[in-house]
Amino acid sequence: MQRWRGVESAPPGWGRCVVTIGVFDGVHRGHQLIIGRAVDQARALGVPSVVLTFDPHPSEVVRPGSHPPMLTGQHAKAELLQALGVDVLCVLPFTVEFSRLSPDEFVHAVLVEHLHARSVVVGENFRYGHRAAGDVVALAASGKRFGFSVEGVPLQGSEETTWSSTYVRSCVDAGDVEGAAAALGRDHRIDGVVVRGDQRGREIGYPTANLEPLPWSAVPADGVYAGRLLRAGGERLPAAISIGTNPTFAGRERRVEAYVLDAVAGLDLYGEHVGLSFAARLRETLTFDGVDPLVEQMAKDIARTRALLVDHPNG
After folding, report:
1. pTM score, two decimals?
2. Same domain (yes/no): 145, 208
3. What phi and psi, each to the nearest 5 degrees, are found at residue 60?
């Protein structure tokens, strides 16, 4: 998959293509249907498929301070899009100037002048241009003028809800990682760097990897989770994950810590970029009367984690 920064990165002689546009945070099952439709169209037409997305999140530029928790960083998003068969990921720098483009200016500058779109596939609720003035009807009208077709894909969901990034964020925020996984089609994941913590876990026989998540990461609610620690190269290590302030030790800083089950002797993760995926929530954060009851509960958490992950796919 090619990766471009801005539409100006299109190579000389770039021909026609099928484009799909969106933030696609989380690349959830609804996104997957839209992107899959674009990929299928591109293959049928014998042209490349292009995913056009934005960085930073448009809301942070339009309403500074309103950046939502992110379900996927740019690197994780790229991996997911590549797995869906996308030919080109084009990340548009979202600036104040860009946000002021009218719908017609956006279409001409991005879809016509640089990408030479033959077809555009978007969700039926797609909006674009200054103050989100453009919609699928307006895009289709522009397509008739400039020679590209437009398909608005209906929103998708379960009987209970429509899949959306906002819905998945609400699940994660509530600690409902299983609900999030149902909409994502895989376990929710956060990424970051392993940093040094207080090393209390090592002192009580349960050394943990202390993760510093990427900025704006959608970190699940405080509690204890069964999941996996994901290393570069595809290694997936079963882990019990704790999120909270360590109230038993009067902690104040919110931490994300993972105890790797059956870790090999001498496993050193400090400074390593890793991911944590969340399979199930075991319990809420508790305050214990000392180290002994804490250690006893941790042993139970680890046993439950081990049992849960036996039948849980590597989400």
Report:
1. 0.91
2. no
3. -70, -30
